[in-house]
Structure formats: structure tokens, C-alpha cells
Amino acid sequence: AAKGPLKVALQSGFGLAAALSFLQLKLEKVYKTWFIVLTLVCSLGLLGVPFLSPKPFIDVWLYQQKAADYLLNLQNPYLFDFPHLYGDKIGSTYGYPYWPFLLYVTTIFKFILGDARFAFIFLHLNVLFYWLKKKENKDLIFLWFLFPVQFFVLEQAWIEGVLIALVFFHIEFLKKRRFLQASILLGFICATKQTMIFYAIFSIIYMFH
Fold it and tell me: Is pLDDT at 102 greater than 50 in this prediction?
């Protein structure tokens, strides 16, 4: 049996190991608890935006709502004059200003839930739960979802939130060299906003690099 300083060292070592194991177990439980809490906060925070701000005073939201109504009534949103929202300061917009993919997606959610922004929330939640399946760096996703501007962009119905979600999955496909899926998704991205043609150019260069 160990005696003297060796016995003290062994006892101290075992005691410290037990204490660290207990602390690690507690920290893991705390981490898992907070991880669940943050996931719920992000999800409920996104879902709560349309209810807390049901009618934001911005033309982008109005265009999406009105365009969905036109399409649901079997009318072409690109042929209608959208109303003046800011009085005489800014003129009205003739025709829906974005490309068809966004129109089709937002119309589905406008029909089901009454607000086009639920399409954005659906895409964001897909990004969130896809990232949570990763084995590493899971907590990094919260840096994006808990960034205050994220909720403001959603509240204002800016379509950049949709584009970020689509580009996220497109990059994932490229990283895994799933070029067929990446090409299809790239088509959807380009059919969302006109300026994404520049993103497409760099994506195609990457695919053939």
C-alpha cells in the first residue's frame, strides 16, 4: 500500500479527478439545458415576430402580402400597380418587384397562415435544426439567430433573410460535392432576386474549379 507523500498525492489525485468529473457532468447538464433553452428562444422568437408586429409599416411586407392575394385570386401580380405607402414622398411600384420563386413560396404561407413572413421563418428554422445536427460548433448558430438585427430583418420582411437561408444550404451542397442539388437550389436562388446572378457566377466557377 502506498504510504506517506505518495499516499497523499494519490488521494489528492483521485479526489481532484472525482471533483473534476462531477464538475464536468454538472457543466454538461447546464450546457445541455441552456442549449435547449436557446433553441426554444430562437424558435419562439422567430415565430413570435408576425404576432408582435402583424402589420409593419414597410413596402416590402405590403408587396408580398398583396402579391400573394393577387396570385390566390388567379391574377398576375406583375401587372398590377401596388399602392402608395409613403404618401407623396415615394411613388407606387408597378408590378411585383421580385422574381417568381419568392412569390410562390410566400403565397403558400400567406394562404395557410395569413402572413408571407412565415415562409422566411420556415427557412430559418430549417437552417437552425440542420445546424443543430452537426457534431461540432453547434453553439455558433446562436450567434446568428440571437443577433438583434435578425429579428428586425424578419419583422421588416426583407428578403435577404430568405437568401441567406438558401445560400447556406447551397454552400452545404457544394461542400459535399452534391452538384445536382446545388444546381437546382442555385436556380431557386436566382429566381428569388435579380442581383443573385452575381452569386451564381462565382458558384459556377467554384463547381468547375
Answer: yes
DSSP line for 78-124: GGSBPPPSSTTSSPPPBS--S-HHHHHHHHHHHHHHS-THHHHHHHH
**Are 53 and 155 contacting, i.e. CB atoms less than 8 angstroms apart?**
yes
% of the chain exceeding 70 in pLDDT: 75
What gap in Å lies between CA 95 and CA 171, rounded to an integer? 32
Output the CA–CA distances (angstroms, integers) from residue 38 to 120, 156, 199, in the order listed. Answer: 19, 23, 32
Q: How many CB atoms lie within 10 A of CB 29?
A: 10
Which is it for the CA torsion 149, 154, 158, 159, positive or negative?
positive
Q: What is the mean pLDDT of residues 52-78?
A: 91
Contact call for residues 133 and 145 (beta carbons, < 8 A):
no
Between 68 and 83, whose confidence is greater?
68
Whether residue 95 contacts residue 80, with contact meaning beta carbons closer than 8 Å, is answered with: yes
Q: With beta carbons less than 8 A apart as the criterion, state whether 139 and 35 touch.
A: yes
CB 132 within 8 A of CB 145: no
Residue 118: pLDDT band (50, 70, 90) is: very high
Q: How many CA atoms lie within 13 A of 198 on its CB side?
A: 2
Alpha-carbon gap, residue 62 to 85, rounded angstroms: 8
What is the reported pLDDT for 19?
58
How far is the C-alpha of 23 from the C-alpha of 109, rounded, in Å?
A: 47
| SS3 (DSSP) at 183 | helix
